[in-house]
Structure formats: structure tokens, C-alpha cells
Amino acid sequence: MNYRALGRTGLKVSEIAMGCEGFVDKSYEQVLEFVDKMEELGINCVDLYTSNPEVRANLGRALEGRRDKFILQSHLCSVWENGQYLRTRDINKVRAGFEEMLRLLNTGFIEIGMIHYSDALSDWREIVDGPVMAYAQELKAAGKIGCIGLSSHNPEVGQAAVDSGLVDVLMFSVNPCYDLQPANEDVEQLWAEAAYAHQLVNMDPQRQALYESCQRQGVGITVMKAFGGGDLLSQYSPAGLALTPFQCLHYALTRPGVACVMAGARTAAELEQCAAYEDAPDREKDYAAAFAAMPKISWEGHCMYCGHCAPCPRGIDVASVTKFLNLAKAQGEVPETVREHYSLLPHHAGECVACGTCEKRCPFSVSIIKNMKQAAALFQH
After folding, report:
1. What is the pLDDT of residues 282-307, one digit of tens each?
2. d(C-alpha 381, C-alpha 373), whole Å
């Protein structure tokens, strides 16, 4: 298992993480099987958005004696009321729900206190200007949560949260179909048939800007909906063809800022299949050919960081140079962290001899030579 830094939090999370769907409607023995499998596979990060007390209690019991081996991303504002889940900003309910969460999980703290599900800017303003953010900061100061997160499907809300400086982790929906769609406060529109009825061209610029902002500002992204609820793995995918789990995982993990993908595995065997991504050959992870063949989608001219341009005869890591170039261009200047990461590359854009080998290999017709010239000028080597 590979591990990545979760932004500026100081945490190291496994690239493949565990979504909590697999714990729902399961007995303690089945949850224990999941936790055993996670420990065996080296999966150390778990999302717990559900407020179901039985799920929380089962997980807390299964973690006994090994709590320190796992990073919990558990959600504030997700409570259980009248036998069902409720998202709330009522601070009294939020407080009671968090204390119940700690008790059921049998723990004194949560590594990531994730403010649950904000897709409207008005809701984000209510969070940040009201008692919810103040309570999250209170919990952080008291050591009951290690860092503050926000879950969202809307890049406008995500950007506002990142720019506020208050959020260390963003849980965001990342997949090659959602990434085509413009910001919307209604998550259902991301998957509406009408949204894919016309030709779609390249990633929505707000989504790309959000991922780049997260990488620049040290906000770690934990990915949800990488498989689009399973739809992307089906022939009925809005992309027009079925993708594989490895392709979806690789797409998400090659976006800027992403630290891990929450796999919504329903069985321990499915979780093991997702973890097999780590040892899969590059050809099984490669999404470029599939993306280039999507009948309703064009990625022409857009670098997908897929690596098909390699190997460069001069040894330049073209995908990384392009990513750092895009990060700097989006900022309008060269952030110090981006400059440092660029300087650590063994070969730089200034070494490009414009042979064009990379452009011949690129499935998306990216103007790589032009990008290398821009990067050499911007970074001055």
C-alpha cells in the first residue's frame, strides 16, 4: 500500500481508503471482517458519514486494541433522529451527535472532523459565520478532532472553504464525468441525463482550479464518488462506455491535491479488489485510451497527467512539469512551494529540445512543446 501526505495535516493516508457504505446493514462480525481486511491490506483511513448508532458502535468495537492504526474521518452535522439520518446545522444537535459519536466509537478523538455535506454557498456562509465552525474550532483546540474538513460536491463551495483557510481537508466527488459538469447546488444535476445530452469538452475550469488550489494551499482531498455510485463501471455510463475500477481510481489519484479515494466496497472481497490497484500493471490503470474513445466527450488539448508522453529522451517528467505549470498559471504567480517542487525534478523544461516525440504519443493532442517553453520561461530553467 502506498501512503500520501494529507495536505498540511501531518497525516499519512493510504491511497485506497474505506468508505462507510460497507458497514451499513452489517453485523458486528461482518464489520470486524472489514477491519481485519483493512489492517491486512494496509488501509488506514476510514470515512464515517453515517450517523447510524449501530454502525458506529460496531466499528468502535471492531477497532478495540488497534485504534491507533486507523485514521477516522467522521462527520459533524450528521445525526440520528427518529430512527433515521439527519443533516443539521442546529448546534445543540451537532454537539450531542458528536459526543454520542465518540462514545459509540469508544474513542476520545477523531483525526478528521468533517463538516457534513455543504453544496450551497448560503449553507457554507451559515457554517462559517455561525456556531458550527466555531464548534469545530473548539473541538480542534480541545484535541477532540485533529483537523477540520468539509464534504461537498460543488466546486464553488469547495473553493470558498479552501480560500477561507479554516478547512484542512476537503472531501469531494471526483470522477471523469462529474469533472465535466459546471458548479451546481443540486448534486442530482451531476448525473442527470440532460447534462450529457450534448458534446462535452474538457474539464470544468472551476473544478480544475479547485484541485490546483488544494495542492497549492495544502488542503488534502479525500475522494468520494470515484465510481459514480457504480454507474461509471457500467455500459450505461454517461461517458458512453464502461470504465474499470482501476481506471477510475487512477484518474482520481492523478488529480492535483488528492490524497486518497474512499472505496465504497460492500464486501471485504470488493475492498481487496480495490486494494489490488496498488500492484496492478500500468496498462490496467491507464485511462487515456478509454477517455479518448468516449463518444460524447472531448479532452482535446487538455493534459490529463496520464503519462503517455513518457519517456522523454531528455528525461523530463512532462506530466509533472505540466502540473506545476498549471498550478502557477492558475495562481497568477509562482508559489514558493510550487517552485520548490519544480526545482526538485531531476530534469527541467529548459532541457526540452522540441523533438516532438511526446506530442506524437499524447492521446489528447496537447501542445507539449509550447507548455515546456512556457514552463522554462516561468521557472527560469
Report:
1. 999 998 888 887 777 777 787 878 88
2. 10
